[in-house]
């Protein structure tokens, strides 16, 4: 998801995945961690970014459908951590990126990180 959309979600305290589809959100449970990866700064003409841009925890079990005019995306409440550091993916050594094609995998949407990868990303984004 582009950084502009992630920032809007952080301001609203919500997550929206897979172009507003419900399925990705339904795979998450209260207390699960969520890390957003942003390949670009904005949707259309955004500059390449390839960075982790938000970090939070699923707040509860409720999934609801928002009304944005002709768009009705499914959403979920997220407790985002404040003051995270936008972290380039290439600056963190991850199992995920050790194999060719990792970018394609991330384009598919919700990807489960290993515990070790999550810890590395968390530590990098929370570094003082």
UniProtKB/TrEMBL annotation:
Query: Record's superkingdom?
Result: Bacteria
Cited Pfam families: EVE (PF01878)
* Residues annotated as domain EVE: 4-75
What name does this protein carry?
UPF0310 protein
Q: From which organism does this entry originate?
A: Actinoplanes ianthinogenes
Q: What is the lineage of its organism?
A: Bacteria, Bacillati, Actinomycetota, Actinomycetes, Micromonosporales
